[in-house]
Each structure stands twice: as structure tokens, then as C-alpha cells.
Automatic annotation (TrEMBL):
GO terms for cellular component: endosome membrane. It is found in: Endosome membrane; Membrane. It comes from Cirrhinus mrigala. This is Chloride channel protein. It is a multi-pass membrane protein.
Length: 127
């Protein structure tokens, strides 16, 4: 890696006089970052802002779709996509029959445990 980094830096800078200071700065910044912790800057900002962070290994499906999204009064029940049993025909029908901008993805219609959310435009692009 060091040799390829030297070659790339030489091509970017055009001279050897910049390679040593740039490499020293890169190594120093790596050491400082490792001293502060192993998490990345994005995880740090998520924690600083208090956003929910869902690690895939720790996430269990406890939240119901109806706990997060509720239809307005006098509207049909929540339109959802199931994790395993939704077909392309089901998605096309859902897009044709509704005007929602997105749909919750649940484990099954019986449990309605929330596992994600998909936007209408992403579904249209995928089809």
C-alpha cells in the first residue's frame, strides 16, 4: 500500500518534495483518529445529533408499522409491502391503486413488524 500511495502522490503533486510531508500528515491523522476511537465520523455525528442508529446485528423487529405510520381518518388501512411474499404484480397494483409517496416494509401481514421503508419513486425505478 505504501508504494502505491507514493506513486499516486507523485502523480498528483508532480514532485518528490511534497510526498514526505503529505505521508507524514496522513499517518499522523490516522494515529489521532485511532486514539479518539474506532468509530467513523458518520457514527459520531449520528450520536451527536441523537438520531437512531440501527446496527443490523442488534436490530430486532419489535416496532409495528402502525406505531410509526397511521392512515388519516376515513382512509383505507395502511398499505404495506411484505418482506418475502410481495410479488412484482402486488407492487404494480399498489402503485396503481394508491398515491402514497412510500410504503412500510413488514415481516408479514399477520405480524406487521416494521423492517424498513421504500419510497414510491424507488419502486417505480426498480420495476
Amino acid at each position: 500500500m505504501t508504494v502505491s500511495l507514493v506513486v499516486i502522490m507523485f502523480e498528483l503533486t508532480g514532485g518528490l518534495e511534497y510526498i514526505v510531508p503529505l505521508m507524514a500528515a496522513a499517518v499522523t491523522s490516522k494515529w489521532v483518529a485511532d486514539a479518539f476511537g474506532k468509530e467513523g465520523i458518520y457514527e459520531a455525528h449520528i450520536q451527536l445529533n441523537g438520531y437512531p442508529y440501527l446496527d443490523q446485528d442488534e436490530f430486532t423487529h419489535r416496532t409495528l408499522a402502525t406505531d410509526v405510520m397511521r392512515p388519516r381518518r376515513n382512509e383505507p388501512p395502511l398499505a404495506v409491502l411484505t418482506q418475502d411474499s410481495t410479488t412484482v404484480e402486488d407492487v404494480e397494483t399498489l402503485i396503481k391503486d394508491t398515491d402514497y409517496n412510500g410504503f412500510p416494509v413488514v415481516v408479514s401481514r399477520e405480524s406487521e413488524r416494521l423492517i424498513g421503508f421504500v419510497q414510491r419513486r424507488d419502486l417505480i425505478l426498480a420495476i
